[in-house]
Amino acid sequence: MAQTQVPFGSPLARKIFGVASFQELTRKNTFMNSLTGPAPKVGSGAEAVKAERMQTSPEYPCVRITDLTKERGDVVSVDLFNILTGKPTMGDRMLRDRMMKLKYDSMDIKIDQARGGFDPGGRMAQQRTIHDLRIVGRQNIIGWWARYLDQAKYVHIAGARGSMNTADWVIPLETDPEFGEIMVNPVLAPTFNRHLYGGDATSIGTLDVADTLSLSTIDRIRAMIDEADMPLQPIKFPDDPAAEYEPLYVLLVSTRQWHNLQTAIESLPNGGSVWRTFLMNARERGSKNPLFTGEPGLWNGVLIRKTQRAIRFLPGDTVTVAQNTANYQTTTQTVPTLTANHSVDRALLLGAQAMGEVWGKDSGSGAHMRWYEEITDHGAKYEGSVAGMLGMSKLRFKDVNNVMTDHGVYAIDTVAKDPRVA
Predict the structure, then answer these.
(1) Distance between CA atoms of residues 418 and 112, nearest Å
(2) Strand runs (DSSP E) across 74-151, as ranges?
(3) DSSP H helical segments within 72-178, as ranges?
(4) Sign of the C-alpha dihedral, residues 59, 60, 62, 67?
(5) How many CB atoms are closer than 10 A to CB 151?
(6) C-beta atoms surrounding 308 within 10 Å
(7) Which pTM does this prediction carry?
(8) Cα dist. 422→199, 259, 418 in Å?
(9) How far apart are CA 214 and CA 191, in angstroms?
(10) What pLDDT, in 10s, does the model give residues 260-310?
């Protein structure tokens, strides 16, 4: 039987390739996909047809919502769930009027159209068929999309873009006139009660070269979580055998912070043994989540994971920070002059429901993404593109004291030395 071919430029191609692109993006083994829970399971038939709005597991740092009723310019509501609190009702005491309320908040996130396209060159230069260009082009544009999504989520969670601007950055600097448009929703600086610093520093301006990331800093942060009125909710991976008994949080650190931490540990009298234990603890935790692959470390219930990119501030940079007020108000601070080859890097300590990633309906395809292709220049050149209807934002709410609070993340600014310099 002949295999069915999807004609070039057909409406069917737009839908099939668009749906396939979205599925590939959400399954791709990217850093942020590892922090996103699985989609809820629905039945078949009428139940599946009605499942137009789906929210992934709230026990992961990133909550993904797909809502096929929303289009460009719309907002999608993300629900933030809190644990039940209250006293038990004992004996024959009436339970009536003592019911514990299921506490949750909602946050609206705007969506907009984002597009990316590719031009593989003219027919003679490529020496490939239209079919080949489709496949090669789609794989390349999906790789580009994956970097865009990862970086946009990273910037939103961090609450800043920073000054790192290597060639693989898709998200431009905040000074770029299109930055706000590309991010769709405002990039929110960390709330005051979720912003910490290395060493004895209490602000950006008081950081010095001694305020690096260390095990003592991690211990202090963990103690603060445990003592907080509204602590971060721990992350629960389905295959984590200790999820119910040993709360787990994830600390994303830059390569500089990782190197500084390793150097500090190995300089201890028994540093080699401590470092091996640090790495072994992560392996023994046993989860198959990709976050546990490679060589992460585990310390005091915090999984420390190195990232490929950094939210990095250089001396003289202006950083937006929140003031110590109940209503969210911001000011700016300047990164101090540091010893040469030092920067201020932002680590991110994540619990559950740190950010929301929402997808709406592309009006051209009726799906979350749309594929478009055409022949230009009198049939000599092929071009393709992918469009998606999406938006994302860090999740925050007012706590029991009516103070605006980032729901699932602490930002931790520390001084970090360039490992390329002795």
Answers:
(1) 38
(2) 75-81, 104-110, 112-118
(3) 123-126, 130-158
(4) negative
(5) 18
(6) 12
(7) 0.85
(8) 22, 12, 8
(9) 23
(10) 999 989 888 888 898 898 888 888 887 777 788 878 888 999 999 998 889
